[in-house]
Design goal:
single chain; 512 residues; alpha/beta; Glutamine Phosphoribosylpyrophosphate, subunit 1, domain 1; five-stranded antiparallel beta sheet; five-stranded parallel beta sheet; 13 strands; 13% strand; asparagine synthase (glutamine-hydrolyzing); nucleotide-binding; Asn_synth_AEB
Length: 512
């Protein structure tokens, strides 16, 4: 007998799987998806994820074989962690706190992660900030039998450009595939809303969905505020639009909540905004669409337009979407610095896998394996779960990636535009001025707010605290902070990354 011990996610092609596996499709969602997992494992074993579309992480206990089988989806949209106790037991779960609550767990800081964090602003790779707690990485499964853990990889991103198609061919395939996926993302008896920014991804998802309501957030500072663009998109598409206006006080007051529920520090300033958006949206719906995935698949970031210029040099420096602090600066501010603990070590094996690909495909592959899992999907999962909101991401799908993996890079990025084919597809549903609008990113006025003494008092407190003294040369980090206050606004990311670590540490190692 197969027992589902742990499960988080949503299986999109459940109707087809129910037919294939002889499962009653009228079962309630939870019971139905557990039945799919158990029967899929009995039918396909370790290759079961090859037959499933969606977002999932789970653990199954095979009573007959006395084996635990754990799996995380191809992109890592849902987290999964494990920890071996001194007496050989395996603790596991989709949250670290679940592991911490179990007998045999010993809470210790993994300080090696801090050095990586100060560059990337998130915890990349299989290690976490808790010593001994490992992440099951995307596209992997874990088998625990007779006290032994084995981790195997069942999926690796691969790129095989098909030169036979035109731009319009690619746009048609994107559009028809999203049209195929959207009805699977939500059951007929469910009602969903849709997050909406000023960008093309969320606008396209909204246009292709049956959501009657869009949810957006903005600020009083007009130059940072995308919500007016979002509201105009909603009006054009005939959808109601809820707008959250985020204040500096609200933003800074929620930081401890975010770091606690994130379970590891995250220096992405947009995570705070997303947490507030999830809380506000959960007041009137429990299900929401979001547009993550298209940027990494289809060349959405402006820096991807530099790919050819970087060329072979990529493998010497490119470790993902963020690179906040260089090694000489970390050496100067950290009390404990290890010359061998370098961010580039996290991607050396990936560069071996992608040898021979064009530079844009290499950057995309690194971001799919490192950045998406470590930052984007972590943020979406943790903040939505904390708010009691379920988020589904239609563009994060193996069928969408399959298109991207076959598409030549010139249809993703050119000298004038990024995400060219995707925008061309979106223009089938959106006005051109929206489909081809310049990428703004999820902008936050933190660059301004954190320099204001009305809002930065907790930053000052922690930068001068005993916690800071444990890890940093306090005069050095306060020098960075004062330089920022004095007008060097480029330092805001460094200040924010240090601050979020200190808040997280206080939450997990001082208060609790």
């Amino acid at each position: 007998m197969i027992k589902v011990k742990e499960y988080r996610g949503h299986i999109r092609n459940w109707e087809a799987l129910c037919g294939e596996l002889d499962i009653d499709p009228s079962l309630a969602r939870g019971e139905r998806e557990e039945a799919i997992l158990a029967k899929a494992y009995k039918t396909w074993g370790c290759r079961m994820a090859d037959h499933m579309y969606g977002m999932f992480a789970f653990a199954l206990w095979d009573e007959e074989e006395e084996t635990l089988f754990c799996l995380r989806d191809q992109f890592g949209t849902k987290p999964f962690y494990y920890y071996q106790t001194e007496d050989g037991r395996l603790l596991y779960g989709t949250t670290i706190r679940r592991i911490m609550e179990q007998p045999g767990f010993v809470k210790e800081l993994n300080e090696d992660m801090l050095q990586i964090y100060l560059t990337l602003t998130y915890g990349a790779g299989e290690d976490t900030f808790f010593k001994g707690v490992k992440k099951l990485l995307p596209g992997r499964y874990l088998i625990w039998k007779d006290g032994k853990v084995t981790v195997e990889r069942y999926w690796t991103p691969s790129f095989h450009p098909d030169e036979s198609k035109s731009l319009e061919d690619w746009a048609d395939e994107i559009h028809s595939t999203i049209g195929q996926i959207m009805p699977e993302v939500k059951a007929k008896d469910e009602t969903a809303e849709s997050f909406l920014s000023g960008g093309v991804d969320s606008s396209y998802v909204l246009a292709m969905s049956d959501a009657k309501t869009a949810d957006t957030c903005g600020y009083a500072e007009e130059r940072f505020d995308e919500s007016r663009l979002a509201a105009e998109t909603g009006r054009i598409l005939g959808r109601e639009c809820f707008r959250s206006l985020i204040t500096p006080d609200q933003y800074f007051s929620i930081v401890p909540y975010v770091m606690y529920h994130m379970e590891q520090p995250l220096g992405d300033a947009s995570a705070i905004v997303f947490a507030i958006a999830c809380q506000d949206t959960a007041k009137h719906t429990k299900l929401c669409y979001s547009g993550e995935g298209a940027d990494e698949f289809f060349g959405g970031y402006n820096m991807y337009r530099n790919a050819e210029r970087y060329g072979e040099n990529l493998k010497t420096f490119y470790v993902g979407n963020t690179n906040i602090m260089k090694e000489d600066e970390k050496k100067r501010i950290l009390k404990r610095y290890d010359e061998t603990n370098l961010p580039i070590n996290l991607v050396r094996d990936i560069y071996e896998e992608i040898e021979g690909l064009d530079p844009l495909s290499k950057m995309s592959d690194i971001d799919i394996q490192i950045w998406l899992e470590g930052d984007i999907y972590l943020n979406v999962d943790k903040m939505s779960t904390a708010a009691g909101l379920e988020i589904r991401m239609p563009l994060t799908d193996m069928r969408i990636f399959d298109i991207a993996s076959r598409m030549p890079s010139r249809y993703k990025v050119n000298e004038e535009q990024n995400k060219v084919a995707f925008r061309t597809a979106a223009a089938k549903m959106l006005p051109e001025e929206i489909a081809f609008r310049k990428k703004l990113g999820f902008i936050v006025p933190i660059r301004i707010w954190m320099a204001d003494d009305r809002y930065n008092q907790d930053v000052r407190r922690l930068f001068q605290s005993e916690i800071a003294e444990k890890f940093f040369h306090v005069e050095e980090i306060n020098g960075i902070f004062e330089d920022y206050i004095g007008g060097n606004s480029d330092n805001w990311r460094k200040v924010w990354t240090i601050y979020t670590f200190l808040v997280w540490y206080e939450e997990y190692f001082v208060k609790r």
